[in-house]
Amino acid sequence: MIDTPAPVRAVPAAGRSGRARTRRVSLGVALLLGGLVVVAILAAIDVTQGTADVGPGALWKAVTGNADRTDASVVVASRLPRMVAGLLVGVALGVAGAAMQAVTRNVLASPDTLAVNAGAYLALGLGSVSGIGFGVLAQSGLAFLGGLGAAAVVLALSGLGSGTVRLVLAGSALALGLGAVTNALVLLFPQETQGMYAWSQGGIAQNGFGGLVPMLPFLAVGVAGFVFVSRRVDALALGDDTARGLGVPVHGTRVVAIVLAVVLSAAAVTVAGPIGFVGLSAPALVRPLARRFPTLHRSWAAFPVAGLVGAGIVLASDVLLRAVVHGDAATAVPTGVVTSVVGAVFLVVMALRTRDSGQSGQLEGASVPGRWTVPVVIGSLVVVLVGVVIASVLLGDAKLLLGDVTNWLTGRANQAIAFILDTRVPRVSAALLAGAALALAGTVVQAVTRNPLADPGVLGVSSGAGLGAVVVVTAVPVVGTWTTAGGAFLGAAVAAAVVFGLAARGGFRQDRLVLVGIGVSSGLTAMISLVIVLTDPFNATKALTWLSGSTYGRTWADCLPVAVVLVVSLAVVVARRRELDLVSLDEDTPRLLGVRLSRTRFGFLAVSVLLTATAIAAVGTIGFVGLVAPHAARALVGRKHAAVVPVAVLLGAVLVCVGDVVGRTVIAPAQLGAGILTAVIGTPYFIWLLVRTPR
Question: Rounded to whole angstroms, how far apart are CA atoms 100 and 106?
Answer without folding.
Answer: 8
